[in-house]
Each structure stands twice: as C-alpha cells, then as structure tokens.
Amino acid sequence: TTFLFAIIPTSLLYNLQYPPALNNMAHMYQKGYGVKKDYKKAVAYLQKAAKLKDNVAQFNLGMAYQKGKGVERSIDKALHWYKKAGKNGNVTAKVIYGKIIAKQKKNIEK
C-alpha cells in the first residue's frame, strides 16, 4: 500500500487528510524513496497528519525537532510533540519524553 500512496498526487493527499498516507509520504521524502530526499517536505506532511491527532506523525515530528531534520533543532518543540504523541497513545513517545525530562533534571541538579 505504500507504493499506492506514492502515485497519488500530493495535492490529493492534502485534500484526503488521511494520516497514514501523509505519514507514508513523509517517510518517502525522509528516505528518498521514489522522490528526492527532502526533510522539509517530510516535515510538512508530518505536520498535516499531526494536526489530525495522528500519534505516529506527532512522534516523528518530535524526532525531527530532536535531531534538527527539516526543522531547526529544538528540544522544547521535540518535548511538545512527544508529549502530544504520548497523550494520543504512543508509548515510545512517552518513554523518550520521560528520558529527556530525567536527563534535564539530572543536569539541573549538577
């Protein structure tokens, strides 16, 4: 099904507002599968899906902000998206959120 989404025009995907399709397109741009690798375009798809409360997209936005891929690196924004993803059921996002907070707390205590 991933390749099915690859042949649907970008404008149609935006109109469909179907998070799995938007996530697939983001993944294709992140990896360069069938398209030129473009992290900024990947983030645009993730933002669209994240606004639809898709916890996978929210998690992936957290990763993008944590790593600075397609966006300016920002731990605060990464935490924002990990927290949203966690509230929407993404267990991995909860774990990463907790680890970052614990590390920040540990650094403050030093």
What does this structure look like?
With 110 residues, this protein is mainly alpha-helical. The protein is built from 7 helices and no strands. The protein is globular and about 50 Å long. It is 76% helix and 0% strand. α3 (19-31) packs antiparallel against α4, α4 packs antiparallel against α5 (55-67) and α5 (55-67) runs antiparallel to α6.
Brief write-up:
The protein is mainly alpha-helical. It contains seven helices and no strands.
Give the arrangement of secondary structure elements:
Elements: H1 2-7, H2 10-16, H3 19-31, H4 39-51, H5 55-67, H6 75-87, H7 91-109
Helix pairs in contact: 3-4, 4-5, 5-6, 6-7
What percentage of amino acids are in beta strands? under 5%
Integer average pLDDT: 88
Radius of gyration: 15 Å
Low-confidence stretches: none
Structural class: mainly alpha
Distance between the termini: 50 Å
Helices, by number, come to 7
Q: What general form does the structure show?
A: globular
- How helical, in percent, are the residues? over 70%
Instruction: Give the H and E element order.
Output: HHHHHHH
Q: Please summarize the sheet with the most strands.
A: none
